[in-house]
Write a structure and sequence with these properties.
Layout lengths: L12 H15 L3 H14 L4 H13 L3 H13 L10 H12 L3 H11 L16 E6 L6 E9 L2 E4 L14 E14 L2 E13 L5 E8 L2 H13 L3 E4 H4 L1 E4 H4 L2 E3 L9 E4 L6 E2 L10 E7 L2 H14 L4 E8 L2
Helix pairs in contact: 1-2, 2-3, 3-4, 3-5, 4-5, 5-6
Length: 320
């Protein structure tokens, strides 16, 4: 793994060896052993901002946000004058502050990094558009689309598959470095990795098998559910299976549609898509529905009754 040493001061050989060994251990997943070495590095070079930045980075990996904030504050205090804009020290401090809902510090960090952030006392609220985010990157990972609330939080707009353990409408904290890109309508979007769930959603996920004679019938269900304030997604069209290397590369979103999302694994699979452009319409569709349990059946019945000769459903199940 990369050692984040910007060489503003020349550290000792002992510091370099200790830090290099610590990041090797981080790469091996031995965070506790790495932590002991990075603490030693701060003892060796306490006036070096990199010492505290590396320790803050480790605490971020461990999700120890109080310690990440404390070490991050030491790191930014030791930055060279005029080097704040674009410094990763400020970015990681902003993530830690956001995790802790320390909004005053989050604003200070984003502003010092060089972002325009409005004044206020509550959560940072910015219009940063949509972005793909990789849920559960260390497990059954899945790339979905969401709305960026601020530089470190995304509200999930896709309906994740149940294997990810995530729901529509949840807010996740994400990292600042991108792993891959998705291209929608010719525009590249960086894929950010989820760090942890920031705010859960009370809305459960259901799966149902539809019989939809045409794409318009399918679209009618998605529109009906959206008008009720919830979401429906045709997983048969929007989900594709990718290997990890493909998922972390530059990929086009299916049909240029920002609702497409990608589960992937570590195996040697190629790009497997449930739906390809130009494919003939198949009436049976697997659909995800994000809505209260008591409302889902009612919405499906209303959808069927609007065109009973062309529409039907079966095997409705709550899955997450």
């Amino acid at each position: 793994m990369k050692i984040f040493n910007r060489a503003r001061q020349r550290p000792s050989a002992s510091w370099r060896q200790t830090t290099d060994r610590a990041f090797t251990l981080i790469g091996d997943g031995r965070l506790d052993d790495a932590g002991a070495l990075l603490v030693r590095a701060t003892d060796l070079e306490p006036w070096l901002s990199d010492s505290w930045f590396n320790l803050a980075l480790l605490h971020k990996f461990r999700r120890d946000w109080d310690q990440a904030r404390a070490a991050g504050l030491r790191a930014v205090a030791l930055l060279d004058r005029g080097s704040g804009a674009g410094a990763p020290d400020w970015w990681n401090l902003g993530i830690a502050a956001t995790a802790l809902q320390d909004w005053a510090l989050a604003r200070r960090a984003w502003q010092a990094y060089g972002l325009r952030v409005p004044a206020g006392d509550g959560p940072v609220a910015l219009d940063l558009g949509t972005t793909p985010v990789r849920l559960s990157p260390e497990g059954e990972s899945e790339v979905v689309w969401g709305r960026r609330l601020d530089p470190a939080r995304v509200e999930v707009l896709s309906i994740p598959l149940p294997s990810s353990g995530r729901r529509w409408g949840e807010v996740v904290l994400h990292d600042g470095s991108a792993h891959g890109e998705r291209v929608a309508d010719g525009v590249p979007y960086p894929v950010f990795d989820e760090i942890e769930l920031w705010a859960p959603s009370p809305v459960p996920t259901h799966v149902v098998l539809l019989q939809a004679a045409t794409e318009g019938d399918r679209d009618g269900l998605e529109r009906l559910v959206s008008e009720a304030g919830y979401a429906a997604e045709d997983w048969t069209s929007s989900v594709r299976l990718l290997c990890r290397a493909c998922s972390e590369s530059r990929m086009a979103a299916d049909d240029g549609h920002s609702g497409a999302h990608d589960p992937h694994d570590d195996g040697p699979l190629g790009h497997l898509s449930h739906h390809a452009q130009g494919e003939l319409w198949v009436p049976e569709r697997e659909c995800g529905l994000a809505a209260p349990t008591g409302l889902v059946g009612e919405l499906l019945d209303r959808w069927v009754m609007a065109a009973p000769g062309r529409r039907a459903y079966r095997d409705l199940e709550e899955v997450c």
